[in-house]
Design a protein that fits this description.
This protein is α+β, with helices and mostly antiparallel strands and about 200 residues long. It is about 35% helix and about 15% strand. A hairpin with a 2-residue loop joins strand 2 and strand 3.
């Protein structure tokens, strides 16, 4: 699966607004949010992911991430909670991302089967969202150091050292959803449980 974002033509209004928003973030001479909102209005869900990436380590990052993840929801099928894989921090605290995807469904056994399959794929997802094959030797980008499944939640965990990678998060959600469908799960809800609900070794 290759989900590396494709840059639209630079002369499109949405792309112009996005680039101006990125510039405004750097110079702080203009309100970046208004420009990003304009970019999103003139584009599709992919733009939300690009904005989430651009706004990392700003007070806007958590909100853009919440808006991006829900674009992966399939009404009546596999839905995604706005708080899945959240970006945390700010107000003097270091920014980080919570890398756990839990599944709520009517068939926990099938959900666990899907998470076990996803666990084998997630270590090959790069920070830009591209999924490598096991034989691919291109490791120029960051990828998870470790993955594990907790059958009691059920939940899959990615050790990303607290790093924030929106495009990796998007691909991780798509992998879990794809494996759920492959396992026969047609309706489920993906969410990230609070840290207090997980074993101490996972926090």
């Amino acid at each position: 699966m290759d989900t590396e974002p494709v840059s639209p033509s630079a002369d499109l209004p949405a792309e112009v607004a996005f680039r101006l928003g990125c510039q405004a973030l750097e110079t702080r001479e203009q309100d970046a949010r208004e420009l990003f909102e304009e970019a999103v209005r003139g584009s599709g869900p992919q733009m939300l992911w690009r904005v989430a990436q651009a706004c990392l380590e700003t007070h806007q990052s958590a909100d853009w991430m919440r808006r991006a993840v829900v674009t992966e929801s399939e009404p009546g099928g596999i839905t995604v909670d706005p708080g899945v894989l959240p970006i945390l921090g700010g107000n003097g605290e270091a920014f980080t991302q919570h890398w756990k995807i839990a599944v709520q469904s009517d068939d926990p056994a099938q959900a666990i089967e899907a998470l076990n399959a996803a666990e084998l794929r997630l270590p090959y997802v790069l920070e830009n969202g591209r999924e490598l094959s096991e034989e691919d030797a291109d490791y120029d980008f960051y990828r998870p150091n470790y993955t594990a499944v907790d059958v009691t939640v059920p939940c899959v965990w990615m050790d990303c050292k607290g790093g924030m990678f929106p495009h990796m998060a998007r691909t991780a959600l798509r992998i879990v959803a794809a494996e759920l469908r492959k396992a026969g799960v047609r309706q489920a809800h993906l969410f990230t449980p609070p840290a207090d609900d997980l074993p101490a070794s996972w926090q």
